[in-house]
Amino acid sequence: MKKEQTIYIIGAGISGLIAAYELERAGFSPIILEASDGVGGRVRTDEFKGFLLDRGFQVLLTAYPEAQRYLDYEALHLKNFEPGALILKPGDAFSISDPLRNPGQTLSMAFSPVGSLFDKIKIYQLTQSLKQKTEEEIFSEKSTTTFQFLKDYGFSDKIINNFFKPFFRGIFLENELSTSSRMFKFVFKMFSQGFAAVPEKGMQAIPEQLKEKLTKSQIRLNTPVKQVEYGKIYLSSGDVLEADSIIIASRPDRILPQLQGQFKPSRKVVNMYFSIEHSFIAQPKIALVTDDQFLINNLVFMTDVSSAYSQNNKALLSVSITKPVEVDDKLAKLVAIELSALTKISAEFFEHVKTYIIENALPDVDDMAYSLAAGNTKVSDGVFLAGDYMLNGSINAAMTAGRKAAEAVISSYQTVH
Question: Which residue numbers delimit the Amine oxidase domain (predicted)?
Fold first, then answer.
């Protein structure tokens, strides 16, 4: 096999980094072109005003098979969220625990007002049935909406509104639970088999660890690509690069003329950070806001999960808004008022740190899948695609897609030579 082939990877997100790693293992030395100033794509962390701010509330599900394949969890110093959630309502708050993980909470969970005892039995049954299925089996099942699946499974409106809606709105970034039931079952299984976690020093530690695994790849930052055509890469700078193979590990419709208009708009989220002297939750748990009148969908004190998110001894609160909202100077004040209504802490104590408007937070995928044949990543001679948009919106899918694209490139050279 010739190893001096010129292989370019466009995008240094999770998919692009995995593709580079797999190509290196096969003896190649790819060149990664990244438009921004760092690796990670949508998985980035900023240092700002003495805090670590993930660009959007993100977690790693430790049960992800691909993450277990590629990541050294111990080196990431993962900090786990406590299973379950806190339900916040004006003048009321109660916890949902996972009695399978925390037997001491069994009694309190049985009497929790989140849903009926029948609902809790149903959760147990669903958890057990999903544990018996492989990921491939889950994604081969008939697809309906998550909302319809929950109704058909027998869950009450109470637990759907109190738990499933706010919890999975924050994951799927859409408000009607219209996401495929395949994705719901996959994520539910991942939560039941592992933990939601963040690296001690922010989510960007994940792509940074992947970058450190690369020893023969070149990474060219601040190098946006304008177009790809016939084995040539046209950079925004005006330079033209010739390539034997190209893996597009970013939105391909923006640089491949034949794919323009082929993709649905990505799902959006607004992520706001506030600081306060002390956490009013005081446990590494996500809090859900069930009242549809509120802008806030979910919130979490990142410093309850990992104290390293703050270098100034203040608590760091992450707030996610999944509703369409106008981001202006008034928004931070409105959210602070909502926080006050939920906690009875005066709004003035919530100091706005930063707001992220994340336009491309998740791909909107119609026919969700768990994996794909390597050959299906090929879009034309010498051009291959990689990204979670090919499967489902998750770190696991991004890794799978990167691996499959690399396998297709490797196979193309084995076939020729």
Answer: 14-410
Question: Pick from 60, 100, 190, 178: which is nearest to 138 by CA?
Answer: 190
Query: Which residue is it, tokens 């430790």?
Result: 62
According to DSSP, the residues that pair with 269 across neighbouring strands are 358
Evaluate if residue 394 carries a pLDDT over 50: yes
Take residue 204 and report the two structure tokens written for it. 């960007």
Q: In the numeric block, which tokens belong to residue 92? A: 């009321």
Name the residue with tokens 């544990």. Answer: 131
75-134 confidence digits (pLDDT tens): 999 999 998 899 999 988 878 766 455 544 544 455 467 778 888 889 889 999 999 999
328: DSSP letter = S
Q: Is 0.85 surpassed by the pTM of this model?
A: yes
CATH class name, domain 7-43+204-262+366-416:
alpha beta
Q: What's the pLDDT tens digit per position in 65-87? A: 999 999 999 999 999 999 889 99
* Residue 310 burial (CB count, 10 A): 18
Residue 267: beta bridge partners? 362
Q: Which two tokens stand for residue 20?
A: 């580079």
All residues at 6 or more sequence positions from 323 whose CB lies less than 8 Å from its CB, including other chains: 175, 295, 297
Per-residue burial over 47-65, b if 16 or more Cβ lie within 10 Å, else e, is eebebbbbbbbbbbbbbbe
> What CATH architecture applies to the domain 51-199+267-362?
Alpha-Beta Complex (3.90)
If 0-12 CB within 10 Å is exposed, 13-18 middle and 19+ buried, where does residue 131 land? Answer: exposed
The Cα-based distances of 99 to 96, 102, 155 in angstroms read 9, 5, 18
Give residue limits of the domains in the chain: 7-43+204-262+366-416, 51-199+267-362
Kindly indicate the confidence band of residue 274, based on its pLDDT and cuts at 50, 70 and 90: very high
Rounded to whole angstroms, the Cα distance separating 370 from 186 reads: 9
**Alpha-carbon distance 102 to 94, whole Å?**
16
What's the farthest any 2 CA atoms get from each other in the chain?
A: 70
